[in-house]
Design a protein that fits this description.
177 residues, SH3 type barrels, 2 domains, 3 helices, elongated
């Protein structure tokens, strides 16, 4: 079933490419997943398509399994990932999970997770951090550091940052044992 949908999509994109047609797709990847884009296919390969995107006026590569073409009745093969809504209840849920593992949580500038010294005081160095750049210096103001991240990762979408932060917190060992 999945292969049939990709074959049909590939064939229709080849026809559109040969005709120089501009089509509207919904791309479930890239920096703005789920957004509608007007593209002109240039070359169609087995798993991807190179096309001119008229939204950004650039030539981009699109994975075929992430493309939906509503005008043709073709849905993408990849399921759209639903990110959690970030509200006070969601933040409190994550903080409660961290506290249950017996870590210190500092909420002064984002969320930072700290271990304790033997005397019970929290360490200054954090083991996991979700920080926010309030000054507008970065185009991606949300950053995450943690045990599974080799370098700091920056995000434009707070929901993606929280998703990675929650994953990093799950890697932390339980100190209550």
């Amino acid at each position: 079933m999945v292969d049939d949908a990709l074959v049909l999509l590939r064939e229709k994109l080849l026809v559109a490419s040969d005709a120089g047609e501009i089509i509207t797709i919904v791309y479930h990847g890239g920096s703005n997943p789920g957004e509608s884009r007007k593209v002109a296919p240039i070359k169609v390969a087995i798993t991807e398509m190179r096309a001119r995107c008229y939204e950004t006026d650039a030539v981009k590569v699109f994975k075929l399994n992430k493309i939906a073409v509503p005008d043709w009745g073709i849905e993408s093969v990849v399921q759209v990932e639903r990110l959690p809504q970030v509200d006070d209840a969601y933040v409190q849920l994550i903080v409660d999970r961290i506290l249950a593992k017996k870590y210190h949580v500092d909420l002064s500038s984002g969320i930072s997770v700290h271990e304790f010294f033997k005397n019970g005081k929290p360490r200054k160095s954090a083991v996991a951090v979700l920080a926010v750049d309030d000054e507008g210096y970065y185009s991606r103001p949300f950053s995450v550091r943690g045990p599974g991240v080799l370098e700091e990762r920056r995000f434009k979408d707070i929901r993606k940052a929280f998703q990675l932060f929650e994953e990093q917190v799950s890697y932390l060992p339980d100190l209550s044992v």
